[in-house]
Amino acid sequence: MYKIKTPDPWFCSCMEVLLMSAQLDSNVTLGQSIFGNAQLGDKRRTARLVQTFDLMRRHPGGSLPQKMASPADLRAFYRLCDTKDVTHVQIIETVRQHTLSEIQASDEPILILHDATELDYDSLTSLSADLGQIGTGSRCGYICQNVLAVAANTRKVLGPLDQILHLRDNVPEGETLKQSRNRSTRESLLWLKGTQYLPADKRLIDVCDQGSDTFEFLEHEVHSGRRFVIRACKVRKVCAGHTDGGKQLYLKDYAQSLPELGKFTMDIQKQRDRKARKNAKFIVRGGPVLVCPPHARSGHHGNAPLPMFVVLATEANPSAGEKATEWMLLSNHHVKTFDDAKSVIQWYEQRWIVEELHKAMKTGCQIEDMQFNSTARLEPAIALLTVVAVTLLNLRDASRQSDAKTRPATTMLAPEIC
């Protein structure tokens, strides 16, 4: 088995398991496919971006000098990032168009996975005034909201659709609910901003974790023209079915009262040992629900209740001393049968792929270790390394192909790291 020469255990493990990749056209590199049409004001810049990406994806680990062994290539990359036409927005727009073409060519339902992670650049002291708070507020960096397209059936990662680098505000003490609602930089808006370039297409399924559970975003998704799966966490009032005017109940109480649709088993991590896993049985309930608007508005939305479906998956027999694992999911996918509910659960289950992207960005590509003296130079580098990180996810996909055991690792990785 090929092994990657890197001190990082996660990166080494990932690359050992995911050795092979899809065969690329020998005349067109992946960099040309993704960035060949980038509008950077000069064809030479586009060519340099293509070349830099192709170099980085063959050496994704380590510092920037380790990614590009040639000092000339490294200097050229720094010059590229120092050009006013090479921006984070332009690189993400170019990648988005490539991903949309991949979606168009696919005949599967497409999961649009949304999630945020913190990028820590506290060590870049010269940038501290230009960055936002992260963590408990003692460090600085970005809240990075990623939007990733994944084929629902094959789990093939098609590529990024958006990336928002958000600077957290210094919220004034005593900010009122109205002031918070009207503040354009509140973090709850990141979920809406992450959908602004998505088409109204029922083949697309937005999949979001608990942070997106706001009535403002739920209303947006109901009218988006796409399907969605959102993990509920708020205490909400609902009406049974899709008829307004009935008795109001709490969402969780209503979900627990629904008839059982079926059972399934799934491997989950043990709560006391995050490395250990167990095979758990889940009871599934689901049905139609009308979600009522909250009394206190934390966002901008209407007063009409929202028709959708709730799916509740509850661990049947948790281990002694452990709390039962439970997912309560809201969706506009019609849920009547166990198979309907299981589809919603399986779509949400794949949300972890975007977390693997975050791991690939930080641990694999060491995106937080870059040294730049301005955010204008740092941000396009973040965009490019995010696309490089997708390469690691694609290596995993390639390892599932039927010829994975016979295809040389050098189809995607440079010989010296195999």
Main features:
about 425 residues, alpha+beta, Transposase Inhibitor Protein From Tn5, Chain A, domain 1, 12-stranded mixed beta sheet, disordered C terminus
SSE blueprint:
Elements (H helix, E strand, L loop, with lengths): L8 H9 L12 H6 L7 H16 L5 H4 L3 H11 L6 H18 L4 E11 L11 E3 L4 E13 L5 E10 L10 H6 L7 H4 L10 E5 L6 H8 L4 E5 L5 E4 L7 E3 H7 L2 E10 L7 E15 L14 E10 L10 E6 L6 H12 L2 H13 L10 H24 L20
Parallel strand pairs: 1-5, 5-6
Antiparallel strand pairs: 1-3, 2-3, 3-4, 6-12, 7-8, 7-10, 9-10, 10-11, 11-12
Mind explaining what this structure looks like?
The chain contains 13 helices and twelve strands. By secondary structure, it is of the alpha+beta class. The protein has a domain at about 230-340: Transposase Inhibitor Protein From Tn5, Chain A, domain 1. Strands 1, 2, 3, 4, 5, 6, 7, 8, 9, 10, 11 and 12 form a twelve-stranded mixed β-sheet that branches. Strand 5 (about 205-210), helix 9 (about 215-220) and strand 6 (about 225-230) form a beta-alpha-beta unit. The longest helix is centred in the last third of the chain and has 24 residues, at about 375-400.
What would you call the shape?
A: globular
Spatial gap, N to C terminus: 9 Å
The helix/strand series, from N terminus to C terminus, equals: HHHHHHEEEEHHEHEEEHEEEEHHH
As a whole number of angstroms, the C-alpha radius of gyration is 23 Å
The named CATH superfamily of the domain at 228-341: Transposase Inhibitor Protein From Tn5, Chain A, domain 1
Mean pLDDT: 88
Label the structural class.
alpha+beta
Specify the CATH class of the domain at 228-341: Alpha Beta
**CATH T-level fold name of the domain at 228-341:** Transposase Inhibitor Protein From Tn5, Chain A, domain 1
| Strand content bin | 15-25%
Low-confidence stretches: 1-26, 414-418
Number of strands: 12
Helical content, roughly?
A: 25-40%
Total helix count? Answer: 13
